[in-house]
């Protein structure tokens, strides 16, 4: 079985004693040291969670908390369902459930902390995984199904666009769904644009667990890029981490506030 880091759930293509993702300053190795698991153990010790997160968006996660705790989002787009970000848990029953919902046309991931078992997911559905080439060094398990893209944007569906903002990681990406929220638009942000408890704002960080702020020029550029997109809602990385209204304005005023505080 391919080893999986317990802390970040990155799956690797062979035995190892270190997890480069956790040793990076944006993540951490726990005080107790590096520990390993595998997909078989995860599917034995955890259970899948599938529930609605919004209009045409279904959350897919695991219980109890697995790794960082993020959940994937199944987007019911006009051109076919698409999977955004991932959780490590995937088994035959979950694959059958997603296929009953129409399957998926592809997968995209916001940044390396959520790469996890992406090859297992890609093989299960026979679809590509779209990762930004700026983060290629963090791929733990190379595979032909991983498709690297470059530049600022990539269309992955009739109304689905990957947008590289460079926040958190150089390849840090969000997914813009123009048809989301009844045509008002939705931004699926992972923690590139972080949904925080005060839903009037979002956050921008280089490292969330280690509290390292993102560099001001990166945040300024991200806000300028997102000024070109319309979106009502923002779907973050965790369960119920959703800004339901005024998403565009939330991002712009949050970037302005951030830049004022760090200047």
What name is given to the CATH topology?
A: Metallo-beta-lactamase, Chain A
| Helix and strand element order | EHEHEEEEHEHEEEEEHEEEEEHEEH
Give the biggest beta sheet. 7 strands, mixed
Which architecture name does CATH use?
4-Layer Sandwich
Polypeptide structure, described:
The chain has 263 residues and is of the alpha+beta class. It is built from 7 helices and 19 strands. It has a single domain (4-262), classed as Ribonuclease Z/Hydroxyacylglutathione hydrolase-like (Metallo-beta-lactamase, Chain A, 4-Layer Sandwich). The protein has helices at 20-23, 39-45, 92-100, 118-125, 180-183, 216-226, 247-262; strands at 4-5, 36-37, 47-54, 57-63, 72-77, 80-84, 107-108, 129-132, 146-149, 153-157, 160-164, 173-177, 186-190, 194-195, 202-203, 205-207, 212-213, 233-236, 242-243. The strands form 5 sheets. The chain has a 7-stranded mixed sheet with strand order 3-4-5-6-7-8-9. It has a 6-stranded mixed sheet with strand order 10-11-12-13-18-19, with helices on one face. A two-stranded antiparallel sheet has the order 1-2. A hairpin with a 2-residue loop joins strand 5 (72-77) and strand 6 (80-84). 44% of the residues are buried.
């Amino acid at each position: 079985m391919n080893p999986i880091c317990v802390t970040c759930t990155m799956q690797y293509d062979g035995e190892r004693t270190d997890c480069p993702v956790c040793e990076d300053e944006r993540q951490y190795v726990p005080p107790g040291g590096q520990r390993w698991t595998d997909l078989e153990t995860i599917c034995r010790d955890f259970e899948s969670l599938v529930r609605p997160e919004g209009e045409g968006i279904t959350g897919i996660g695991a219980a109890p908390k697995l790794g960082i705790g993020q959940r994937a989002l199944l987007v019911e787009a006009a051109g076919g369902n698409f999977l955004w970000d991932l959780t490590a848990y995937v088994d035959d029953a979950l694959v059958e459930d997603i296929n009953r919902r129409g399957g998926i046309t592809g997968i995209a991931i916001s940044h390396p902390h959520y790469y996890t078992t992406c090859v297992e997911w890609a093989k299960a559905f026979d679809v590509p995984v779209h990762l930004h080439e700026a983060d290629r060094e963090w791929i733990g398990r190379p595979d032909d199904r991983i498709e690297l893209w470059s530049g600022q944007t990539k269309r992955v569906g009739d109304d689905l666009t990957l947008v590289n903002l460079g926040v958190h990681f150089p390849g840090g990406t969000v997914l813009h769904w123009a048809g989301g929220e009844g045509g008002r638009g939705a931004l699926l942000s992972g923690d590139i644009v972080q949904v925080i408890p005060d839903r009037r704002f979002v956050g921008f960080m280089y490292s969330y667990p280690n509290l390292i702020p993102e560099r001001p020029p990166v945040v300024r550029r991200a806000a300028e890029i997102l000024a070109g997109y319309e979106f009502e809602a923002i779907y973050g990385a965790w369960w119920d981490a959703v800004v339901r209204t005024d998403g565009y304005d939330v991002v712009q005023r949050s970037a302005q506030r951030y830049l004022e505080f760090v200047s």
